[in-house]
Amino acid sequence: MKQRQSLGVGPEIIDPTCYARDGYPHETFRRLRDEAPVYWYGENALPFWAITRHADIIEISRQPELFSNLPHFQIVVGAEFGDSDHREPETIIQMDPPRHRRYRELVSRRFTPRALRHVEAALGPIVDELLSALESEAREGEIDLVERIAAPFPMAVISWLLDVPREDWSMLYEWSCAVVTPNDPDYREQGESAHEARLRASQSLYEYFGKLAEERCHGDGDDLVSLLARAEVDGRPIDPHVLASYYLLLIVGGNETTRNALSGGLHALIERPAIWDETAANPSKIEAAAEEFLRWSTPVVQMARTATRDTEIHGQNIRKGETLALFYASANRDERVFPQPFEFRLDRQPNPHLAFGIGEHSCPGAHLARIEIRVMLGQLLSRMERFEFTKPPTRLFASSVGGFKTLPVRYAFKKH
Ligand code: HEM
What we know:
Elements: H1 16-22, H2 26-35, E1 38-41, E2 48-51, H3 54-61, E3 67-68, H4 99-108, H5 117-137, E4 140-144, H6 145-150, H7 152-162, H8 169-180, H9 194-216, H10 224-230, E5 232-233, E6 236-237, H11 240-271, H12 273-281, H13 286-297, E7 302-307, E8 311-313, E9 316-318, E10 323-327, H14 328-331, H15 366-383, E11 388-389, E12 394-395, E13 404-406, E14 408-412
Parallel strand pairs: 2-10
Antiparallel strand pairs: 1-2, 3-7, 4-14, 5-6, 7-10, 8-9, 11-14, 12-13
Bound molecules: protoporphyrin IX containing FE (HEM).
The site of protoporphyrin IX containing FE has 27 residues, from helix 11 and helix 15.
């Protein structure tokens, strides 16, 4: 057994303040991949093993019996659930097989490429509406790309799939942000701690969807709220708390991550005008660009697992009950898998990034997210000139999801 190594790795790998200030700690991730791919980070309230290589994350994700999603599925600094009287969400991310599969399949059937064929056709008009609203305000000007494009689009798509009334979308968006990035003071109410903000927002989402489900459970609606409200597992309706948690996960999963993939990818293209032009001139490259958006931005920084028995990885002794953080943000820059990982390239084929995770819990929304990115990018490239930054972007105050909070740009619609 090797000694637990000390490399002088600091809070930059998990502290939201560092992520907000400097972005992803790629230099530290590179050192960890090279020198200590299974690294004990004991400085956190929840100490964890940092897993930073692509191959190791795949290996761990494919063994859900040995590496459980309970009790911690992610390292959330300063706003952990579970230390108060409130009940934590019980989503499918917090389930292990075989229970996990029975609940997951209730929605995963809705997200296959075949099932989503009609959805793809519906997304064009949603993007068109967003861009046309902007165009009718002014054909050129200054906007925050996150506020006007990257955030409202995924929110519109998931709200449409859940058939949520339009007037509630912005409220759901606020709650969703507070659940995922409660450390950000903008999503907290006055005097509220991050922990309290997260609980308040999740409670609000439970109540909101609890009511909708009650209204729809006897109807014949085809939306995701109705589908789950009527669903049975092992011959029984879903427990109300598990049901409410499912809706919370869909709103949060469908919203933050796609927003961050869009904003992270667009940021990369704005910094690389030649790639913007190349993709605009060759729409057949949009698919490759969308994959590179995902690798480049890696919207989910890390997910966690807990060892269910003593085990060993790269000679490091992992004890039963210890937490492992799978750093997708590092895996997606792993030189062992991606040539020139710090270059944004349209010729990565295949592009085996782990932005959606892999294995038992891999993202069921992956295909939907891919379509969203492609449709949005296609319309932006065909209708708009390249964006230009007007001010430095700001980043999210979070180390579980990552990305830009604002992207202030100058825009112009193409002249017909
Ligand atoms: C770019 C967009 C997205 C990214 C980067 C992303 C990423 C992820 C990741 C990393 C996981 C966990 C994987 C693991 O632990 O192995 C996950 C799980 C999940 N995602 Fe996504 N996601 C995205 C979009 C979506 C969308 C659009 C939806 C739904 C509409 C969605 C719903 C879910 C659900 C329900 C899970 C839990 C799966 C399970 O535990 O079995 N995601 N996602």
